[in-house]
Amino acid sequence: MKFAFSSLLPRLRPLSVYAFALAAGLLAAWAAREHIQARVREIEREAEVARVNKLVAATDLPAGTRLQADHLAVRDIPLPWVSSGTFDPDAVDHVVGTVLTTDVRQGDALLDVHLAHEPAATPLSDLVSAGRRAVTLPADEINAASGLLQAGDLIDLYVSFAHRGQHLTAPLLQGVRVLAMSGGVDAAPSITLDASAQDAIKLVAARHSGTLTAMLRHRGDGAAPQSSASGDLAALMGLDANDAVQRPAVPILYGDRLDADLSPTVLEADDDVRAPEGKAP
Length: 281
Known about the structure:
By secondary structure, the chain is α+β, with helices and mostly antiparallel strands. Helix content is about 25%, strand content about 25%.
């Protein structure tokens, strides 16, 4: 038996060397793998950065777009890549309603320089001088073409009304400045005028007692108006001129009686009064 083991020993030595080499190789491979994984984790930790949520364009948006909520999306962006002037998600109310001044691609962060903020509307009361009044009337009540009038225009106002059995038209206000025009598809158009306190009362009274008509004048025409004609239509057209110069009919006496065949005769201011032939005056 001793002889048999001795004869096998030379054969076992190469096998042990191979086993040792294999074990050493496996150990080296495991160690290398662990080293590589550790290095990868270290690199990932070094590359890892904080990210923040910012408002971005949900789709490609052209310049001039008035932003609505469906134009916006939220995207997380690495902190080192975040530009100044970006918007947090809670700034939606600030962004909605603004107008883009440049094209924005889908996913691009919205910047404050991309947006045009419309100035706040000036209160109408700031347009009224001290001692003046702003009077708002329905545009159709003054026969004004609301689509043509603009703030700053000057108009003349005339009123038509009935007085003592006659229908009269007379100038009411001259050179009245239009402060504002309002109205649209869903609202009746209205016109706001700048007037003195006394003229404002006249406007209200004329609105309830007559019909108003507006006439547009040039903005630079600030001269005092010439005296305007007023009265009923027949008088304005000169239709009563002939009746106004007629003289009343006057009967003519011949002696002590009226001639039934010749009286009454109309005496004209520029005619001589003469008796007919055969009649003594």
